[in-house]
Specification:
The protein is built from seven helices and eight strands. It has helices at about 25-30, 60-100, 155-160, 165, 170-190, 230-240, 275-280; strands at about 1-5, 45, 195, 205, 215-220, 220-225, 245-250, 265-270. Helix 1 (about 25-30) crosses helix 2 (about 60-100).
């Protein structure tokens, strides 16, 4: 079998290696030749232009072409693997779509609308407190108790399960107001010092402060993590924006029920472009 290569007029993609449709490069000709067809009777004929005559390539040219052909094979295998992976993801999406079409929504007949406690009623008038309630508590209260007959401090898990009711209490709502005031004060202080606020992403591709406390998740087939700190993101903004800061959630995968371990918290971070020792020593 004879394979022809025309370096001037040949085409690798559409070529067949014949004298009418020659390849353009020797590497692609070797890559395209089936392994079963390669034998001692396989000959390569190459020429540099239409006016030149076909001739056998030199040994050094064959050696270099075989090396390039191996690179083409690796690239082809990578593309094939990516196509197979994309095909599998598409099949999974289609399968989930078909399964979702089978889901039937039915009314919960056991639900009693008269017992619904999370609602809103519009009342036009004045509230007048006549006295203590029969149970001894105030007439209007947002307290959550384990027992109606013996009011006491609720368990944190109960408060978490009924968080929408807890927020109606004076303590929880006061915390939210205080938090809003603190965030506003932080932003005002940084604005006075010409520090620009940026908004880093919560999803990142690398760890910041140790991989043991990372929340890992699948991001469309790629590994991703919930950020531990926005420090590295802020550092990349220094050359273009100067001094920057952010108020961003941070996440730590530390499964411990103590006040010193938080899975999520608000992180106030700042990065300054130029700081000397005197700047660090000043309290403000």
């Amino acid at each position: 079998m004879t394979v022809y290569i025309d370096q001037a007029n040949g085409v690798d993609a559409a070529g067949h290696g014949t004298i009418d449709l020659p390849y353009q490069t020797l590497a692609y000709a070797i890559f395209s030749t089936p392994i079963a067809a390669i034998s001692e009777t396989t000959h390569y004929q190459i020429r540099k232009g239409p006016e030149a005559q076909y001739d056998a390539p030199t040994q050094s040219a064959m050696k270099e072409a075989k090396k390039d052909a191996q690179g083409l094979e690796k690239k082809s295998l990578k593309v094939e693997a990516e196509e197979n992976e994309a095909r599998e993801r598409q099949e999974k999406r289609e399968k989930r779509l078909e399964e979702s079409k089978k889901v039937v929504l039915a009314e919960d007949l056991s639900y009693d609308a008269d017992k619904e406690t999370n609602g809103c009623v519009y009342v036009d008038g004045c509230i007048k407190v006549l006295g203590p309630a029969p149970g001894g508590d105030d007439a209007f209260t947002n307290k959550l108790n384990e027992s109606d007959s013996a009011p006491q401090q609720s368990d944190p898990s109960i408060l978490a399960d009924n968080h929408h009711l807890v927020l109606r209490g004076e303590t929880a709502s006061s915390v939210l107001r205080l938090r809003a005031a603190l965030l506003s004060a932080f932003r005002s202080m940084y604005a006075e010092h010409d520090v620009i606020e940026v908004t880093p992403p919560c999803l990142v591709q690398m760890q910041v402060e140790g991989g043991a406390s990372l929340f890992k998740l699948d991001y469309y087939g790629q590994p991703a993590f919930l950020t531990q700190s926005s420090q590295l993101y802020l550092e990349t903004r220094l050359p273009s924006l100067g001094d920057v800061f952010c108020i961003q959630e941070s996440f730590r995968a530390e499964n411990s029920h103590t006040r010193c371990h938080l899975s999520e918290y608000i992180h106030l971070e700042a990065e300054l472009a130029f700081v000397d020792f005197d700047d660090l020593s000043r309290p403000s």
